[in-house]
Write a structure and sequence with these properties.
This protein is mainly β and about 800 residues long. The chain folds into three domains: about 80 residues, Carboxypeptidase-like, regulatory domain (Immunoglobulin-like, Sandwich), CATH 2.60.40; about 120 residues, TonB-dependent receptor, plug domain (Ferric Hydroxamate Uptake Protein, Chain A, domain 1), CATH 2.170.130.10; about 550 residues, Beta Barrel (Maltoporin, Chain A), CATH 2.40.170. Helix content is about 5%, strand content about 55%. It has a 22-stranded antiparallel barrel. It has a five-stranded mixed β-sheet with strand order 10-16-17-14-15. Strand 29 and strand 30 form a beta hairpin. It is globular and about 90 Å long.
Length: about 800
C-alpha cells in the first residue's frame, strides 16, 4: 500500500543525513505532486519530483528555490541546506499543454500548427461523464449525436462516423465496417480509466491514414509510474455514482502496482441505465414534439400498442455497459521496456430508440417496429509495445506496436405484427503493426514510421419465428462469403524550429489499400458478380507554420490533405431502409479533402484566447445516391419492391466554419470560460446541405475554487437549424428525427461541485438541465436527459 504522506516525510527526514530532499504536495489534498520543476535562483541547479513528490536538492547551494508546475501556482522558499516540505496551490485553469497526438510523441503545444484539444484526468473526474461520448460533448468543442442512449457519434468539422478516427493508446480502433451513418463505438472506451484525451481538429491522414478526414480522437489510458526505489508502491481508486434521469448506477475500481522494473494497472467499470427520462418543459419549438405516447408490448402472442404512463420516459432506451483494462510493463534495460495491455468492453442489448419511435405514416400512432436493438457490442484488444529510448544514428526514441482487436455486433429487428425476428451478426478480426521513430537534431525533429493493418469480416443473418422457433434465411448485411481489408503505409513528419519564434511543420504519407469480398447471394452484388476486388492508393501531405510573435501571441497556419478509402460497409452492404435498399457499388473510389486552417492565440499566465477559421474542399465525396442494380432502379428484397441506392462518388463539396475559445482566471478563486463553434457546408454538385455539419454550439462556464471546494456553473447550447439547411434525404427518410421546422435550438443551465473530504475521499455532485428543458441535439434520435441529479464518491489509497 502506498505510504501516506506523514510516513513518507519521516522517511524523507531519515535520509537527510545522506541527502537533502524536497517533498512537494497539493495544498488542498495533501497528495504528492509529480514532475514539479525545482530550480535555484542561480538558474544552474535544477531537479524534478518523482512519483512520490520527492526531489533531491542536495546539490543546491543555500538561497532562494522556486517550485514550478503548469497546474499549480509557482512558489519560492528560502533553502538553508535542510529538507523542505512545500505545499502548492492548484490553479483553477492550466494553459500550458504537452500534446501527443500531433506526431505520436510528446510535443509542446506552442510548436504545433493544428488545433488540438486536451482533456485532462482532473477534468474528466470533475465532469463525471457517463461515457467517453459524454466526455467529448462536455468539452463544448465536439458535437455529439445520439440515435439511442447507448451511443454517441462525434462530429468534427463536418465529418463523423467513419470519417473521423478513434485511437486508443496508439492503436486505431476504426475497422472496415465502420459506417458513414452514426457510430456508438466510442462508448467502448472507459472515461474512468483515462489519463487524458486529445482531439486533432482537421485531417490527420499524414500520421494516421484513412478515415482521419475530420479529425482524430486520441485516448490515453492510465500508465502507472516506475518506482524510484526498492519499495513497492500499491495504490487504488474506487468510485460509486448515481444519477436520476436514467436511474444510473455506476461502480469503478482500479489498482496500480509500481516497482523499479515492473508496473501493473487494472481498471473495471460497470454501469446500468434504466429508461431515460427526457425534460418535461417543452418550449422554443418543442411544444408537443417527441412525446413517447405509445410503445409496443407482446401480449398473448400479439404485438399491441400500449399507452405510456409518462410521455417523457423514453421506453425502451436503457442498457448496461462493462469496461475493463489490464496493463503490465517490464523494464528490460535502462533504455528498453515492453508492455502488454488487454482491453475488454461489452454491453447488454442496446435498443435503437429512434427506430422504435418511427410511425407507419403521418398523423398515426401505429409504430413501424415492434423490436429494434443492437445485440451485445463486444470489443477486445491485445496491445503489445516495445519501447527504445537510446539515441543512435537512426532514432532517439523508437516504438514497435503489435495489436489484435475483435469486434462483435449484431442488429435485431422485427416489424410490428411480424412474428419473424431478423438477426444480422458481424465479427471483425483486426490485426495491426506499427513502427514509429523520433530523431532529434539541433533545432528540429523527424518523426517517421510505417504501419499495417488487416481486417477479416464475417457476416451472417437469419430470421427466427418468435412463436414457433423456426428459422429461415435472409440476406446478410455484408457479403456472406467473407471480406477482408488491408492497408500498408509509410509516413514522415518534420518539425523545424526556423527561429526561436517560428516553427515549420511538414509531413507526407503514402498508403496502399486493398479490399476483397465474396458472396453466394446473386442479388447482393451488381451484375450478379460473386466477388469484389478493389485496389486503391493515396499520397497525402501537410504544411504548417506556428509563429510565436512573442511570449503572449501566436499565429498558426496549416494546409493538409486527407483521404478515406471505401471500406466494406461502403462497397459491400445490403441494407434496406424504409422504401429503399442500399446495395454495393464495385466502382467506388476514395474521397479526398484539402483543408486550410488559420488560428490566432493570445496566452498569458492567467488567460487564453484562441480563434480558428477553417475551410475544406472534399473531392469525389462518398454519399448515398440513386443507383441501378442489374439495369434496374428497383429491387425485390424479402418480397418487397424497393428503390435502389448505393454509396456513390459525387462531385465536390465544401465545408467551412470556425471556433472561439476563451478561458481566464479573473481572480484568485474565480475563472470564466467560453467555447463556440460552427460548421457549415454544401454538396456543390447537387446543391444540397451536407449531413454532418452542425449548427452553432458551445459552452459557457463560471468556476469557483477554494482549497477543497470546486464549483462550476455552466450553460450548454445548440442553435436551431431550419429544415432547408438539412439534406432533403434526411428529412424525407428520417422525418421522425425532426420537427416541421427542422431542428430547434436549446440551452441548459447546469451546476457541478467537488469537495475533497479528506486526502483519500472526494465527493462530487451536480444538477444537469436545472430547468428540465426538453431538447435534442441536432440530428439525434433520442431526447437528452431532463433534470438530472448526480452524486459520486471517490476513494483512493
Amino acid at each position: 500500500m502506498r505510504l501516506n504522506l506523514k510516513i513518507t516525510f519521516l522517511l524523507l527526514l531519515s535520509y537527510s543525513s545522506y541527502a537533502q530532499n524536497a517533498l512537494v504536495v497539493d495544498d488542498a489534498t495533501g497528495k504528492p505532486i509529480i514532475d514539479v520543476f525545482i530550480y535555484h535562483e542561480n538558474k544552474e541547479d535544477v531537479s524534478y519530483t518523482d512519483e512520490k513528490g520527492i526531489a533531491d536538492i542536495s546539490s543546491f547551494p543555500k538561497g532562494l528555490v522556486f517550485f514550478q508546475h503548469p497546474s499549480f501556482h509557482q512558489q519560492s522558499i528560502a533553502y538553508l541546506g535542510n529538507d523542505l516540505r512545500v505545499s502548492l496551490k492548484e490553479k483553477i485553469m492550466s494553459f500550458n499543454e504537452v500534446v501527443i497526438s500531433a506526431n505520436k510523441w510528446e510535443q509542446e503545444e506552442e510548436n504545433v500548427s493544428q488545433q488540438i484539444m486536451t482533456v485532462s484526468k482532473k477534468t474528466i473526474q470533475f465532469q463525471n461523464p457517463q461515457t467517453s461520448a459524454d466526455l467529448l460533448a462536455g468539452s463544448g468543442q465536439v458535437f455529439v449525436q445520439k440515435s439511442q442512449m447507448g451511443g454517441g457519434s462525434p462530429k468534427i468539422r463536418g465529418f463523423a462516423a467513419n470519417s473521423v478516427l478513434l485511437v486508443v493508446d496508439g492503436v486505431r480502433m476504426n475497422n472496415a465496417i465502420f459506417r458513414s451513418g452514426n457510430l456508438q463505438n466510442v462508448i467502448n472506451i472507459d472515461p474512468n480509466s483515462l489519463e487524458s484525451s486529445e482531439v486533432i481538429f482537421g485531417p490527420g491522414s499524414v500520421i494516421y491514414g484513412s478515415d482521419a478526414l475530420g479529425g482524430v480522437m486520441d485516448f490515453h489510458t492510465i500508465e502507472p509510474q516506475w518506482s524510484t526505489d526498492a519499495v513497492t508502491d500499491i495504490s487504488g481508486n474506487a468510485m460509486a455514482r448515481y444519477s436520476t434521469a436514467a436511474n444510473e448506477r455506476t461502480g469503478h475500481l482500479d489498482v496500480s502496482v509500481a516497482r523499479q522494473k515492473f508496473t501493473f494497472f487494472h481498471s473495471s467499470s460497470f454501469t446500468a441505465f434504466d429508461d431515460l427520462r427526457a425534460g418535461g418543459h417543452r418550449s422554443g419549438g418543442y411544444e408537443g414534439e417527441f412525446e413517447r405516447e405509445f410503445y409496443v408490448e407482446r401480449i398473448n402472442g400479439q404485438d399491441q400498442l400500449v399507452r405510456n404512463d409518462d410521455i417523457n420516459v423514453q421506453k425502451f432506451s436503457g442498457y448496461d455497459l462493462f469496461n475493463s483494462i489490464s496493463k503490465a510493463k517490464f523494464r528490460l534495460s535502462p533504455n528498453t521496456d515492453i508492455s502488454y495491455g488487454f482491453y475488454y468492453s461489452t454491453t447488454s442489448d442496446i435498443p435503437r430508440y429512434d427506430n422504435l419511435t418511427e410511425t407507419l405514416g403521418t398523423n398515426t400512432d401505429s409504430l413501424a417496429a415492434a423490436e429494434w436493438y443492437y445485440g451485445p457490442q463486444k470489443w477486445q484488444m491485445h496491445n503489445l509495445k516495445l519501447n527504445f529510448y537510446e539515441s543512435n544514428a537512426l532514432f532517439d526514441q523508437a516504438r514497435v506496436t503489435l495489436a489484435y482487436q475483435r469486434f462483435e455486433e449484431s442488429r435485431n429487428d422485427r416489424d410490428f405484427g411480424d412474428d419473424r425476428l431478423r438477426t444480422r451478426t458481424e465479427i471483425v478480426d483486426m490485426y495491426s503493426a506499427a513502427l514509429d521513430f523520433d530523431k532529434e537534431f539541433a533545432r528540429s525533429n523527424l518523426y517517421y514510421g510505417m504501419d499495417f493493418y488487416h481486417n477479416d469480416i464475417a457476416s451472417d443473418a437469419y430470421r427466427r419465428n418468435i412463436e414457433t422457433g423456426a428459422f429461415s434465411e435472409t440476406s446478410s448485411r455484408y457479403p456472406d462469403g467473407g471480406s477482408d481489408f488491408t492497408s500498408f503505409a509509410v509516413y514522415g513528419s518534420y518539425v523545424n524550429e526556423l527561429t526561436e519564434q517560428v516553427t515549420f511543420n511538414s509531413g507526407i504519407r503514402f498508403n496502399s489499400i486493398s479490399l476483397k469480398a465474396n458472396t453466394t447471394d446473386d442479388r447482393a452484388l451488381a451484375n450478379n458478380s460473386a466477388e469484389l476486388d478493389l485496389q486503391n492508393s493515396a499520397l497525402n501531405g501537410s504544411l504548417g507554420l506556428a509563429i510565436n510573435l512573442n511570449e503572449v501571441n501566436k499565429i498558426s497556419y496549416n494546409i493538409s490533405t486527407g483521404f478515406r478509402s471505401p471500406n466494406v460497409d461502403d462497397v459491400g452492404k445490403v441494407f434496406d431502409v424504409g422504401t429503399s435498399v442500399v446495395v454495393p457499388n464495385p466502382g467506388l473510389t476514395p474521397e479526398y479533402s484539402l483543408s486550410y486552417e488559420l488560428a490566432y492565440q493570445r496566452k498569458t499566465e492567467r488567460s487564453l484566447f484562441k480563434v480558428v477559421a477553417f475551410h475544406s474542399r472534399l473531392f469525389d465525396a462518398i454519399i448515398d445516391g440513386p443507383y441501378t442494380l442489374n439495369g434496374s432502379s428497383t429491387a425485390s428484397i424479402d418480397g418487397e419492391t424497393l428503390d435502389v441506392f448505393a454509396k456513390v462518388n459525387t462531385g465536390d463539396a465544401e465545408i467551412y466554419g470556425g471556433s472561439m475559445i476563451f478561458r481566464a482566471e479573473v481572480a484568485d478563486n474565480w475563472a470564466v470560460s467560453k467555447t463556440i463553434s460552427y460548421t457549415g457546408g454544401r454538396d456543390i454538385t447537387n446543391d444540397e446541405p451536407l449531413r454532418h455539419t452542425t449548427p452553432i454550439f458551445g459552452k459557457a462556464t463560471v468556476t469557483f475554487q477554494e482549497k477543497k471546494l470546486r464549483s462550476e456553473f455552466y450553460i450548454e447550447y445548440n442553435s436551431d437549424r431550419d429544415a432547408d439547411a438539412i439534406p432533403s434525404s434526411e428529412i424525407d427518410r428520417k422525418s421522425y428525427l425532426y420537427t416541421a421546422s427542422g431542428s430547434p435550438g436549446w440551452y441548459t443551465l447546469n451546476l457541478k461541485s467537488s469537495y475533497q473530504i479528506s486526502e483519500h475521499v472526494n465527493l462530487n455532485a451536480g444538477i444537469e438541465n436545472i430547468l428540465d428543458k426538453h431538447y435534442r441535439p441536432y440530428s439525434s434520435g433520442i431526447s437528452a436527459p431532463g433534470r438530472n441529479f448526480i452524486v459520486a464518491v471517490r476513494a483512493s489509497i
